[in-house]
Automatic annotation (TrEMBL):
<dbReference type="InterPro" id="IPR018037">
    <property type="entry name" value="FixH_proteobacterial"/>
</dbReference>
<keyword id="KW-0614">Plasmid</keyword>
<dbReference type="InterPro" id="IPR008620">
    <property type="entry name" value="FixH"/>
</dbReference>
<dbReference type="Pfam" id="PF05751">
    <property type="entry name" value="FixH"/>
</dbReference>
<protein>
    <submittedName>
        <fullName>Cation transporter</fullName>
    </submittedName>
</protein>
Length: 165
């Protein structure tokens, strides 16, 4: 008997190269499609409805914000369980004369969970509402009005974990 060995080592062929290219570009395309789907479904991309109008109003809004900051009126937000509390005070610590407070809760990315909350006045400078706030990061705009005129408009970024959620 002869111990002849038959070797079929043909090396790297054109078929191997074709499979390598298909695999490589298939992965690249799959990742790009996945990222595009995530990008288009997770954030609206809108910062302003009409950027031209927003640019024209910028100076007036900036001046109004500077005037509000100079007034010394400031608010303090607290969340305890499902109770959202907002206190607003003058520079000297006395209760600010405000008759309406609205909070706009916005996620930093995405707008599907955004909501608006009108708070009820419990006493001078103190407002409250009951609403469950989902855990995570939020940008909260507080708009305080007296006789329909905005007295204070401020925004804070919070993580509900700060409030013991």
């Amino acid at each position: 008997m002869s111990n002849e060995r038959i070797e079929s080592n043909r090396g790297f062929t054109g078929r191997h190269m074709l499979l390598a290219l298909i695999t490589f570009f298939g992965i690249v395309i799959a990742v790009n499609v996945t990222m595009a789907v995530f990008a288009s479904t997770s954030w609206s991309g809108l910062v302003a409805q009409d950027t031209y109008v927003a640019s024209q109003e910028f100076n007036a809004r900036a001046a109004a914000m500077r005037a509000m900051a100079a007034s010394g009126i400031a608010g303090k937000l607290s969340i305890d369980g499902d109770t959202v509390h907002y206190a607003i005070a003058n520079r000297d610590g006395s209760a600010a004369s405000v008759d309406q407070v609205t909070l706009l809760f916005k996620r930093p990315v995405g707008d599907s969970e955004d909501f608006q909350l009108a708070l009820s006045k419990i006493k001078d400078g103190e407002f409250e509402a009951t609403h469950h706030v989902q855990s995570g990061d939020w940008i909260i705009e507080a708009i305080s009005r007296r006789n329909g005129t905005v007295v204070m408009h401020e925004a804070v970024r919070i993580d509900t974990a700060e409030f013991g959620e």
